[in-house]
Design goal:
The protein is mainly beta. The protein has helices at about 15-20, 50-55, 80; strands spanning about 1-5, 10, 25-30, 35-45, 65-70, 75, 85-90, 95, 105-110, 120-125. The protein has one domain (about 1-140): Alpha-Beta Complex (Sulfite Oxidase, Chain A, domain 2). The protein contains 3 helices and 10 strands, in the order E-E-H-E-E-H-E-E-H-E-E-E-E. It has a 5-stranded mixed β-sheet. Strands 3, 4, 7, 8 and 9 form a 5-stranded antiparallel β-sheet that branches. The chain starts with a strand and ends in a 27-residue tail after the last strand.
């Protein structure tokens, strides 16, 4: 996994190096834009703040774009990713993530719809400007707030 863009310290982490970073456990719900939810998911992984601390984003870095193994992209404000429950997960309910569920490493952003929780993360790029991701370019909401049911762009 590569971490670059507007950072003072570019990271290039093997899977072994990534899972060797300090581990956190988070229990959170997962909400799909298609109206289903899965409650009380027990995730383990790397708190996103750990990546931020190691990469040291420049002051103008206000957004983060995630690029995935299948070409998928999504972007979020850095401020959203600093929540304590946001992580790069490698385990769900005590088992390593399968490829079907985004393994070996996926983003988990519980306060957003699932399309913001990118699977198969390979690159994390800090940017000054917002970049629209795969679903956002196709009309889905960029804020992806399940509590306001913000599913589609207006």
């Amino acid at each position: 996994m590569k971490v670059d863009g507007l950072v003072d310290n570019v990271l290039d982490l093997s899977h072994e190096a990534a899972i060797g970073l300090p581990k956190v456990a988070v229990t959170s719900d997962f909400h799909c834009v298609t109206t289903w939810s899965r409650l009380d998911n027990a995730w383990e992984g790397i708190q996103f703040r750990t990546i931020v601390d190691r990469a040291r984003p420049k002051p103008e870095a206000r957004f983060v774009t995630f690029e995935c193994g299948d070409g998928y992209t999504t972007s979020l404000p850095l401020s959203d990713l600093l929540a304590e429950n946001v992580l790069l997960a490698y385990s769900l309910d005590g088992k390593r993530l399968t490829a079907e569920h985004g393994g070996p490493l996926r983003l988990v952003v519980p306060q957003k719809y699932g399309y913001k929780s990118a699977k198969w993360v390979q690159r994390i790029m800090f940017t000054a400007a917002k970049e629209l991701g795969y679903w956002e370019e196709r009309g889905y909401s960029d804020t992806a707030d399940p509590w306001t049911e913000d599913r589609y762009s207006r």
